[in-house]
């Protein structure tokens, strides 16, 4: 009987401490953010910074792109395969240039705002008020950037024929049952 009590006690202790051991093991699992501490702007990767500085869409226009509203960048890349006329090509180039002229400064503003937020945290000067103000500025800038990209998709679609829009979808892999 003594042996049974000892065995039961050992089993009880083993099973009751399993969650504690499990939590202890997870505490040492590296965060997926572990290598990001050295970033110049903590909230943005180097690729995101480069994309913002180049005026690239970064997925901001997916609502348009995936609903048959092509953007000027990809339409211009596919101009020959889409059979764009010379006036269409000229207009798409104008839209592309205007989009860059509008979105690059917005991207630079977003980078500066993220740097400011990071500075507040790294300098330990962040307050509830500054946090709210800065994140609202960032959100407003992100909204302005998204709206700009979406507007150029809308304007680009107006330049194309329905057949060119259909072809664009096929060339980009959007056709079929999705």
Q: What is the overall number of helices?
A: 8
| Mean pLDDT, all residues | 87
Query: In one word, what is the shape?
Result: elongated
Which structural class matches the secondary elements? mainly alpha
Count all strands and give the number.
0
- Please give the oligomerization state of what you see: single chain
Element order: H for helix, E for strand: HHHHHHHH
Span between N and C termini?
66 Å
Radius of gyration: 26 Å
- Give unreliable regions as ranges: 7-15
Strand content: under 5%
Helix coverage percent: over 70%
Note the main sheet: none
List its traits.
72% helix; 178 residues
Description of the structure:
The chain is an all-alpha fold. 72% of the residues lie in helices and 0% in strands. It is built from 8 helices and no strands. The chain has helices at 2-27, 46-54, 62-65, 72-77, 79-82, 86-122, 128-159, 162-171. Helix 2 (46-54) packs across helix 6 (86-122) and helix 6 packs antiparallel against helix 7 (128-159). The chain is elongated. The model is unreliable at 7-15 (pLDDT under 50).
Short précis:
With 178 residues, the chain is an all-alpha fold. The chain has eight helices and no strands. Helix 2 (46-54) packs across helix 6 (86-122) and helix 6 runs antiparallel to helix 7.
Ordered list of secondary-structure elements with their pairings:
Layout: H1 2-27, H2 46-54, H3 62-65, H4 72-77, H5 79-82, H6 86-122, H7 128-159, H8 162-171
Helix pairs in contact: 2-6, 6-7
């Amino acid at each position: 009987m003594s042996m049974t009590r000892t065995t039961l006690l050992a089993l009880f202790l083993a099973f009751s401490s399993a969650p504690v051991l499990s939590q202890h093991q997870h505490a040492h699992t590296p965060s997926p953010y572990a290598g990001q501490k050295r970033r110049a702007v903590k909230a943005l990767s180097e690729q995101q910074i480069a994309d913002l500085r180049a005026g690239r869409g970064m997925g901001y226009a997916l609502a348009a792109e995936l609903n048959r509203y092509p953007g000027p960048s990809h339409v211009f890349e596919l101009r020959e395969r889409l059979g764009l006329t010379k006036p269409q090509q000229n207009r798409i180039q104008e839209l592309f240039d205007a989009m860059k002229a509008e979105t690059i400064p917005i991207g630079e503003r977003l980078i500066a705002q993220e740097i400011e937020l990071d500075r507040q945290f790294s300098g330990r000067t962040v307050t509830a008020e500054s946090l709210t103000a800065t994140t609202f500025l960032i959100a407003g800038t992100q909204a302005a950037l998204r709206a700009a990209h979406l507007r150029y998709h809308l304007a680009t679609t107006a330049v194309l024929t329905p057949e060119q829009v259909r072809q664009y979808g096929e060339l980009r892999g959007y056709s079929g049952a999705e």
